[in-house]
């Protein structure tokens, strides 16, 4: 019988679905309420985890409603067994409302404070809230502040890759992420900046520079690709828009989504993690040409798709003089994140899923013709 109750938001996302997987398989004493964007997504996840049906239930909150104050009232209500822990992966990205970086940071902070306030008011038994993010939202805004969220996955990253200072993007994105975490802590501690009459739980932030890795849910279209996985699609497709050397939005530090999910689950139970912000990273992703070479060695069929000139560009980022500003020490010492998925595992598992999607699309075109 489950003895601990967890609310997980964004369970239908790349990050959230892996967190759900880790919760159900690593913690047999835990039951989970998964917040998803539609009934169809709830059905797909239920099919994905049939063996955990007695420990998994769902609440549907459409994505456009998640920023509304009190949006999670119903999801947080569980009178039979109150929630002990909340893991929040559905982080709003206020691109359209922000006209400068400070405004973007402020809007994301307000959204998160509204969520934490919602937890405080509706679920008094909660003892820990874990916020799971990446630097990507800040990097996207810095690279192209006019880009609407709906088109982020389709933007031509090569266009701006030659115009941006990647060190600046990395440092500024990390600092922005840290500012949001510090603002949340001030609110919880009742500082004059944010009014809070008391504090019933602690807060942990788990973040990564950029995120790669296979999706747990089947891919139906390339638009289903999330985070940095779009770059692997472009390389596998020889997409002319992606000159394979450019990392997503200028950030080549990365984490496999499975490692980020594991760190997030561990953060729920480590007492000393309260109030801390953990950065999870496996290091630097190789350059695009190196990725292409690795994938061609594992998937010979890619040799017909990737142009030779796409594999002759700049050196691996590990060899350049870019600043090493990502510190894994806290995640290693407190969360035990001393080992990570190898870059080959990350790329091969992701590419395998992408190639299966491309084969299905090709067969569909053949059948239709």
From TrEMBL:
An annotated Gene Ontology molecular function: aldehyde dehydrogenase (NAD+) activity
Source organism, top-level taxon: Eukaryota
InterPro entries linked: NAD(P)-bd_dom_sf, NAD(P)-dependent_oxidoreduct
Any single Gene Ontology cellular-component annotation: cytoplasm
Protein name as it appears in the record: NAD(P)-binding protein
